[in-house]
Amino acid sequence: MTPQVLELKRLQALTEAWRLLAPLERREAVYRRVVETVKANTRAVSVLFFLHRPEEDALELVAAEGLSRDQIGFRLPRGQGLSWVVMERGEPLFVPDVSQDPRAVFLRSRREPGIYLGVPLRDPEGRILGVLSMDTAGGAGEILPEERFWVQAVAEAAGLVLGRIAALERAQAEAERQKALLGFTLALESAREPMAMAQEALDTLLRLTPYHGGALYLFQEGQVRPAVISGRYPPDFPRLYEEHPIRFGQGLLGHPRLWEGPVYVEDYARFPGALKPYAESGLRSALLVPIRPEGRRYGVLALGSFGERIPYRPEDEALLRLVARRLEEALERLFQFHTLRRTREAALKALARVLEYRDLETKGHVERVAELSLRLGEALGFQDLEGLRLGAYFHDLGKLALPDEILRKPAALSTGEWRVVRTHPEVGLEILKSLPFLPKTALNVVLYHHERWDGSGYPKGLKGEAIPLEARIFAVVDVYDALISERPYKRAWTPLEAQKELRALAGKGLDPKVVAAFLELLS
Fold first, then answer.
1. Positive or negative torsion for Cα 94, 100, 103, 107
2. Of the four, 259, 269, 301, 409, which is 20 to 30 A from 471 by CA?
3. Distance CA 380, CA 470 (A)
4. Quick check: 61 and 48 in contact, CB under 8 A?
5. Residue range 193-335, CATH number
6. Taking the model in full, what pTM does it have?
7. What fold is seen in the domain 358-522?
8. Does the structure show a pLDDT above 60 at 189?
9. Does the pLDDT at position 410 exceed 80?
10. Helix (H) or strand (E) holding 370
């Protein structure tokens, strides 16, 4: 047969093989169709489809027809069997009698005469995926040397289809990865507690990697402790950290390169610094990355497997780095938020002292009404407690703009002077409305806390439920604290006297439902 005829036949075979395999969408279906097709179109006794498993460096039998059909799952370690010769050389191998070849491995453990033909399976980039082989050992059959071109065509078509399926799987996996990372990022945006952030990070990593469990480790008082644990662990594993605490510099968490970047350990038991209790627990592979928000040594994000070795994959390290970086950024935002909040708290307390210094309020009034407002708001199921608290702190800020001769006047105010005093809610609003951290709730307290249930209040003369609830809540607390506080013009009322007065004001100056809730809170 001339080379031209052989090439024509090869192309015809490739076309036919592609027609048979192209519609398939699952790897297992490709494996089965290949061995069935080769078996049906040749006189081979057995047809075997081996795939290379890099993590074990072995050839695994994933599909078979003929006498070796019951051997699916069988593995050939590197260097054993004729299929490894094909794999390593990357070219077809024809052996007239395998019983005479010492390299041959017989799956049924009995050396028998027969013909062997093996061809490499390649992906579209030319990488060898495995070996397609056929033989006649143990039965009556025949394999002609020239059949090599036809089997090669089937193997070539199979490699192309498997490459297409792998590309589709990678695209789907990347889509899932991006979806999971988006969900993780959104969760971090709303999280306000570091451990909740770490839990989101670990859950995301375990969905996208083959590791069994993960943890965030923190360094506290000279020891390394897991602050958050996620995934699958042996039942007693978390207890080890209490029974056998890890100190700085010990074990994997004391790895000298840990703070430089990710560290991977294939087999923990063989790690030079392995701690015996943890090795005996079944800890096998581990991948760790430091968490360093704002450059500080905060902790370590770690993934681990138990019993099963997880081979190193660059994509796992890249994902761990990415998740760790996003967690660091979220923690940095949180630290900055806490710093701003502490600064704001200090400013609020300073403002309260300024108001008290000018004798506008009795000592401690602002902090007392802020605390009572929170308790009352919580009892009523009010949602924006932080806004209510801020409104309590700022409620009389507008009085700072009033002249001393009015604020400190010992006699009764004139009509004109009273008209000036009644402007302080609007003055306070004008001062505060440009502050971006103040929510609408706080501004409503400042503007409306002198409105009255019967419509007799100021500055807008609102009535009943037209007054925002936050202002109605604060008004009850403000009146109560004013009653029980000593002023230059009155004695401090007893709590019972003040409560009696609140009942009298319910339905007149104050919301009766809010008064009832407050009185119950005080009881």
1. positive
2. 409
3. 10
4. yes
5. 3.30.450.40
6. 0.47
7. Hypothetical protein af1432 (1.10.3210)
8. no
9. no
10. helix 365-379
